[in-house]
Amino acid sequence: MQRFISFLLFLTLQISITSHSYATQNTSFQSPETAVEDFAELGKPNFQVYAENEGLPSNNVLAIAFDKKGYLWIGTINGAAYYDGRKWTTVNMPNRRKSNYVSAILATSDNSVWFGTLGGGLHCLKNGKWTTYDKESRTLPNNTIKHILESVSADGQSTIWLGTGLGLVKYQDGKWTTLDTKNSGLPHNAVECLLESVETDNKRTLWVGTGEGLAKYQDGKWTTFNTKNSGLPNDGIEFLLESVNKNNQRTLWVATDGGLAKYEDGQWASFNSKNSGLPSDYIMGLAESVETGGKRALLIATLAGLVKYQDNKWTVFDTKNSNFPNNNIESLLANKTVEGKSIVWLGTYGGGLARYQEGQWTSFNTKNSGLVSNNAFSFLESKNSNGQHALWIATQNGLVRYEKGKWTTFNIKNAALLGDSVTKVLEQKTPSGSIFWVGTNAGLAKYENEKWTVFNSKNSKLPSDTIMTMVESKASNGHFALWIATFFGGLAKYEDGIWTSFNTKNSALPSNNVYSLLETIREDGKAIL
Fold first, then answer.
1. Is the pLDDT confidence value at 110 over 50?
2. I want to staple 96 with a disulfide (CB 3.0 to 4.6 A). Which of 92, 162, 266, 326 is the partner?
3. Would the pLDDT of 31 be above 50?
4. Is residue 27 within 8 Å of residue 372, measured between CB atoms?
5. Given this model, what pLDDT does residue 403 score?
6. pLDDT of amino acid 22
């Protein structure tokens, strides 16, 4: 028996499934808000987390950007840092005593990296040299920089736009120009975010998010949108993103302090925690990820976790169903690997930086799902007559079924199982429906039409109660045969209600301890076990 236990431990694995998350805590329940129909979307997303222990200057990450070298830059409340793929290097601002609070980062076309700070002005790092622009040098109206944007024209001319606490700033050809409520159509001087939209004919539109509404600057004209004249849920604009829908139409997404807004084809739509899957109305950032195959997803940073909006479905990732360090997502960036796989970077306030890559394995266990044990020995996918899929998991503490968003556990207390250590589950399809065979450490169970029948060495000719695995085969007459590998008892066959045993005494089996089975079909159609 000790050898058997060691063998079970060897077989132990942690179930891992790629994709999506599903948070559960009990052994049998359903969450209508987050239940998914496809069990392949279960699992705990594997977010890699970087914090101060890994070299970050602070766990409060406010800005994320990539430079031309491919280095990842982050802005924190205690300086900036870049990651070269091996290690993190901290970069302090040249006037760090005045402010080392980096609120915005932008890598521009001339290989410069610009840093916006809270109270310390703007800094440009190029070829190892720093240049500072601030209110004291009369280049900026305010030393608080909220957003940095570069616009590159068709002829390669670069323009830097800044969102500051006292207006919109334009830097072009060495000249600084400030636009505010007095000399432009801005609805408010606190500029929080910027976005440039470039159409196929190179026609450009500048979108400006402020503390009191959204402004659009196109062809020298200003247009203002707010809660009174549009579908904006709130006038406090936090972030702007443009995407392209399935019909190749441009869509403007607006993150606000009161929910999310969508502007498409002249029509507004609003989403909040009451009419959608958003966990919070306070939206901090937006990004679009393009997965392998071109499938797009909108990523939404909130104060209650990350939200993925894809195919009209909302999915929330937070500290409960993911290894998130913190639910307060401050910054967001989507990127791609060399192989074209999507990568999402998340900056949190207090929890550091998190990274998720498409195609990585994710896991679920007793803490984040309905599993009753982390020792899982086999799986089975079944499909009923209605086309509904179910996942069956054989574990050390019972048989678990996931179907229609609900976890159900079968064990010796609520079912006719003779033992809780389930080693194998097998489906036999018949004209009248499916029959499930469950092998345990204390015998065999048959589940048909929601009724259980048990077999062991006492009530049948099963040579051993310790079932290792099973395989189904069909005889030449088309009848079903169940082959059962046992520990200590050799091999057993169950066909038409008749048991046949094979062991070292009556067959060529070298051992009565049978661990695995496989049936192959020869070219002449004969089956070999």
1. yes
2. 92
3. no
4. yes
5. 83
6. 25
Domain that holds residue 92: 52-303
Residue 23 lies in a domain: no
What order of strands is seen across the sheet that includes strand 283-290?
283-290, 296-302, 305-310, 313-317
Q: What is the mean pLDDT of residues 27-38?
A: 33
Structure-token pair, residue 518: 């496989």
| C-alpha span between 257 and 282 (Å, rounded) | 5
The mean per-residue pLDDT over the stretch 281-290 comes to 93
Count of other CB atoms within 10 angstroms of residue 292: 12
Residue 447 sits at φ, ψ, to 5 deg, of: -115, 110
**Distance, first Cα to last Cα, the chain:** 27
Q: What is the DSSP string of 393-462?
A: EEETTEEEEEETTEEEEE-TTTS--S-S-EEEEEEEEETTEEEEEEEETTEEEEEETTEEEEE-TTTS--
Which residue, 249, 278, 303, sits at the end of a domain? 303
pLDDT at 198: 85
- Whether residue 394 is found in the same domain as residue 289: no
The pLDDT assigned to 476 comes to 66
Give the pTM. 0.67
Phi-psi region for residue 77, left (φ > 0), alpha (ψ -120 to 50) or beta?
A: alpha
pLDDT at 454: 94
